[in-house]
Amino acid sequence: MSAAPPGMSPLRSGGFLVLLAYRIFAILSYQIVAVTVGWHIYQITHDPLALGLVGLAEVIPYFCVAPFAGYLVDHLPRRKLGMVACAGLAVTAWILMAIAVGWLPSTGTTLIYGAIALTGTVRAFLTPIYNALFARVLPRGHFARGAGVGSVVFQLGLIVGPAVGGLIVGVSGKGASYATAGVLALAALVALALLRVDEPRAAAARTPVFASIHEGLRFVFGHQVLLGALALDMFSVLFGGAVALLPAFIKDILHEGPEALGILRAAPAVGAVLVGLWFSRRPPELNAGRLLLAAVAGFGVCIIAFALSTQLWLSAALLFASGLCDGVSVVIRSTILQLATPDAMRGRVSAINGIFIGSSNELGAFESGLAAKLLGLVPSVIFGGCMTLGVVAATARFAPKLRRLDLRELH
Hints:
Blueprint: H1 14-45, H2 48-75, H3 78-101, H4 110-137, H5 143-171, H6 174-194, H7 209-221, H8 224-239, H9 246-254, H10 258-281, H11 288-308, H12 312-340, H13 346-356, H14 358-375, H15 377-398, H16 400-403
Helix pairs in contact: 1-2, 1-3, 1-4, 1-5, 1-6, 2-4, 2-13, 2-14, 3-4, 3-6, 4-13, 5-6, 5-10, 5-12, 8-11, 8-12, 8-14, 8-15, 10-12, 11-12, 11-15, 14-15
């Protein structure tokens, strides 16, 4: 693992910079796919439930693969495994391109959902690989600041990806947008190929797969702070997932075009970037638990207000504010994850984190689409925001260690 003076910025680490390049290229790739496929599906169906099914098509294979992905990350060379995953991300983007331009004949949405299922499979590897390599390129004392920088890069991907995707769709069409996503996935592959990092030696005798997965689950569910942070984020995203319904809001409420979709998809990420920049210089430590709970409650309030907005500028401002709140949650949760997890279990714990967090976005998309079908577009988002506030109250009640958390206790 890299050693560095305590006061040195994590950005002085060459390995960390290359790892960030991998992260930004991979995020840009699948964010461009996400914004393009949402527009693609809604053009075909004009049905908000169909937007929710995009999330379901991704999360089912994600759920199935993630535990085994974590096991593989803990037992195989992480860098090479990440390169294979990036190649898979490129292939799925180009399959969608072939569908969009007519090279693969399709009269409905079945092939699109199939390609998204492949995306969910390879995405199960991307974050566990990043988190495992993160701990190899930075010393432990830099984890909090590194998590802030990583959050900035992640959120920049959420800003630039949707904006670029919406712009390319509006100017050059869906095929060009998917093709761009494929090229970016290859760029992520190249970044990992260039990364120089000492990886832990594989154990002489490997624990059986299911016993190893069970070990990771036992660790997470026995750690109240880590479990509380993951559950809080999961359920708030699950019920507060208005982003999946943005194509419907833009067409039916705001009456705008695909460029507006890029703006609204990017707005939360702009807020989160500002928070990440702040925390990269002043990491949250004292009263981190209370700050986390307050931020998720603020997120729920912003989602309720967004549902009631009929103006593009106001909707963007509310999503920006939700991003400020979400950014606080991301940095604190990421820091808890890195500080609380033993190095030998980073792949498995990160995969479980992915099931809690990564899959909650897709499940949230399905929940939002189904609720919109049953309750109507605006009432469904208001319901989700209210449920988020309920989740905060329940977490504060049943996870007292998280509520009282000071991050210095985990160093």
